Each structure stands twice: as C-alpha cells, then as structure tokens.
Amino acid sequence: MRAEAIMTRDKPGFWQRVANRFAAEWRRSKTSYAFIAPFMILFTVFSVVPVLVSIALSFTYFNTLQPPQWVGIDNYIRLFLDDDIFLIAVKNTFIFAAVTGPLSYFLCFIMAWLINELQPKVRAVLTLLLYAPSISGNAYMIWLYMFSGDMYGYLNGLLLNWGIIDKPIQWLIDPEYMMPIVIIVTLWMSLGTSFLAFIAGLQGMDHTLFEAGAIDGVKNRWQELWYITLPSMREYLMFGAIVTITNSFAAAGQITALVGYPSTDYAVHTVMQHLQDYGGIRYEMGYASTIAVVLFFSMVGAQQIVQKLLAKLGN
Amino acid sequence: MKQTLYKKRINRSLVGDLGIFVFLGAGAAFTALPLVFAVSNAFKPLNELFLFPPQFFVRNPTLQNFADLFTLMGQSWIPMTRYISNSLLIIILGMAGNLFFGSLAAYALSKHDFFGKQTINALIVLSLMFAPAVLRIPNYLTIAFLGWIDTYWAVIVPAWSSTLGLYLLRNFMNAMVPIDLLESARLDGASEFCIYWNIVMPIVKPAWLTLIILTFQQLWGLTGGEYIYSESLKPLPYALDQIVKGGVARQGVGSAAALIMMIVPIIVFIINQSKIVETMSTSGIK
Q1: Interface ipTM
Q2: How far away is chain B from the Cα of A10, in angstroms, using its nearest Cα?
Q3: Distance CA B16, CA B7 (A)
C-alpha cells in the first residue's frame, strides 16, 4: 500500500500530467501569451468564429430571414453537378488566375527591384506613379472610355482613323475580347500591396551583402538578383504570394465595373462574382458559403504549391 | 547626369541602367493615367465634362468646381468639420490599434517560442484566404451583440483585427530582426516590451510605414455603410458622396471631390515612402 502511494505520487494521472505541462508552459511563456492576447481575442471574434459559422452554414439552406435549415451536402452536390454557371465560373477563374497571378506577381517584384536602385526622390515619384491605379479609387473607369463600343471610344476611334477596322468593335460586350481586356486592366492595376511590401523589403536589406557579393565575383545585376537578393527575400515573397493569390482567385470588382454583371454569355464570370450573386443579390447565404468554402480550398491549394516553389529558391 | 539619377554600384552596366530607366518610365506613363485624368477633370468646366468621348486634358481650366464644392460643403446640415473629425477619429484610432496589437502579436509569433504558435501562424495565413463577403452577416451579428451598432467602434475595432497587417509585420520581423540581437538585449536585462518597442519596431520601420499606407487607404474610403446610421457620426466620404449625388449638374463638384478624396492618401503615401528612404540611409550604423 505504501509502495502504491509512492507509485501514484511519482506517476501522476494523465490529466494531472497534462495540467502540469500546461502550468509549466504558462509560467514559461506568460509574456508571449500576454503579447498575443489582444490580437487573438479580436482575431477569434472577427475572423475565426465567422469563418467557422460560414463553414457550418455551407451545409444549410439560409435565406437570412428564416433560421438556417440543415441540408447536408446538398449545396455541394448542387454546386458541382447542377450549377452549369458555376462550372463556367471555375473555368474562367482558373484561366484568369493562371494568367494574372504569376504575371502580376512577377511585375510587382521586377518593378520594385528595378526601382530600388534609383535615387530616393526619383524613386518616390516613380513609386507613386506606378502605384497610382491602386490609390485612385475606381481608376479602371478610364478604361471604359478607352474600350467604349461606339466609334467615339478612344481605341475604336484610333483604329477607324488608321483604317485597321471599318466598323467599331464591341470590346466590352463581345465575348471574344472580354477576357483579354479584363486581364490587361487587372495587370495594369496590379502594382498594389505586394509591390509596396517588396519595396519595403528591398529597402531593409543588408547592403554589405551586395558589396561582399561584388567582391566575391557577382558580375551583373542578374547574378546578384539570383544569388543574393532572391534568397534573402523569401519572407516577403511569401507575403506577396498570399496577396496575389487572394487577388487573382477572388477577382470580381474590376470585372463587374468593366463588363457589367452578368457578362455576355458569362464569358468572364468568376467564382467570386458567383458568390456575390448568391450572397448579395439572391440572399442564399448557405449556398454562398458553400462557394466560399470551395474557393478557400482552391486558394489553399495554390498557396501550398507556391510555398513549395519558394522553398526551392536559392537552394 | 548619371550621378543625379541613382547610386552607382560596381557591377552595373550603363546600357542596362538606361534600359531600366526607359522601361520604368514607360510603365509609369501608363499607370499614371488615372492621376492625370483626375487632376485634369477637376479643373474642367461643365461643358467639357459632358463631352464624349472625354478629352484627356482640360482646355479652359477653371476653379469653379472647387468653389461650388466649398459652397455646398458650407451649406450642409451637419457642419463639414464634424464629418472630417469623424473620419480623423476613425482613421487614427483604427490605425493605432491595428499597428499596436498587430505588431505586439507579430513579435511574439515571430521571435518567441510557445505552445500553439505554429497553429496560430497557420490559422492567420488561412484566414486571409476566406472570402470576406460571407463573413459580413456573422460580423454584423457580433457587432450588434456587442451593442456597437451606430457607434464609431463598429468600424474601428474590426480594423484592429486586420490579419494582413499582422502577417506583413511578422514576415518582416522573421527576415530583418536577428535573434542574436534580442538575446544580447535580454542578457543586458531588457524587458520583452522594451525589446519589442526599442529594438524590433525601429528595425521593421519600412514594414509598418507600408502598413500605415495600406490601412489609411482602407479606412479613408469607409462610408460607415451598414454600421453607422446617425448623420452626425458619418465620415467624410459619405458626406462628399451625398453632395455629388445631388443631381447631374453636380458632375463638376463630383470631379473636384474625387480629386480631394485622392489627394489625401497620396500625401500620406509620399510622406511614408520618404520615411522608408530615411531608414535606409541610417540603417548602416546598425
């Protein structure tokens, strides 16, 4: 009996051990928990819980007026088997993201990198000019004049004058031209958040690295980019990648502004527009949440691929 | 001539430099279009504003649009200064909270080691990829539950929880702050808060200056939307919007208002970008 008592004292129960571990961890990391606490409370209340609620709603029929009704995976079945327009949206979003994602990412980086060597004043002016489409509200409006479908639109006027075409082209109504135009305008306004983050990252780089590299035989800017700059930019590149993925997978605003909603034959209809249609117009929040969940998993997939690629950088 | 444009480095070719300058210039001319258009529009008399297709450059510039805008602003039921101070309050509090709570958490998530850190870091990245459109109803219910409908808090507190800012700051801390520096500060007896405030934050200055630009832009555009009903609590963009929507003849006023809405973020942008430059010139001392 005595031996038993010693045994239990030496070997506390499972829950006791868990509690001890937590108490020790709490004593050790009190400061860290205090530092993250305010943000984590806000994050839980305004992000984690709403996301969990949305995931739960994706299994219901919810019209925002009556309480949600459980429908199991019906929404998912309907989305993939019955919703032809969703499948068009998936195809368009995939094409759109596959083109604008990598290109705008590359543009943001290359522009930030090239701008980095200029004198501060020249650089500040150029940064502002390149960032202008992101700072001036609905900047894409000027493209409506450019691609206006009558003979007074800038582009039609120009082409008619030069005799390249003999009647105006319906740039924003003809499905043949809509996707390229939407892509061009998106690339034009792509020097946004990632661009600024890359500039800040390049500014914070250790300049002695470049000098040491030059002495060690780095011959030109391209070698310097590959051997020195890119490997030390990994954290910024990951940030830029997340921003670019969300922007290209969730594109909707500029598309609606350019070609209207819905676009002719749903030629540039995207998943995000589909979501807004059900969430904001038809008030089928359950179905809209289903679309959000599917969109979420495709973004996570893209992010995983990019993360694997970035891990290979410079190795 | 060359010296005035950039700092010469040893392994650079002149042709490459010139090529890059031409390339950047061409890009900038293309992206600067909306700026040129907005400035030109604000000075157009009404008859030019209604031309179709719109002329890119103003022919007979006038200040009438601004004069009309200020007259209308003076006539508004609630004094304009009230809208402006509402906007300022929302922007300053929203930005300060976002920066402080975000950077404090980012420091712990970047440099400390504690139970649950990996999970939280993963959650933060994941949360960035969930479409905000479907979060509006749960968030509205939360804010209603907290009793914040029709108060400034309804727009300020959600701004504090911006994960993009935290993620930006955390990644910059990962990349820029050497762990040895923190260890030596700890040996000297510095408190964690002191390390965060006096060592980490100055090093990642480029990151939070950038974050200020992004947060400012986002908060500056807020109209209060579904959260703020009282006229006296509405921010400036809402007031300007009301004036502009007063009729088709308000087109000129609208273009002046659009320019004002654009100029303020541009000023913040220029100030912050020039501060990023300062960091670079002083960081050599480190």
Answers
A1: 0.88
A2: 25
A3: 14
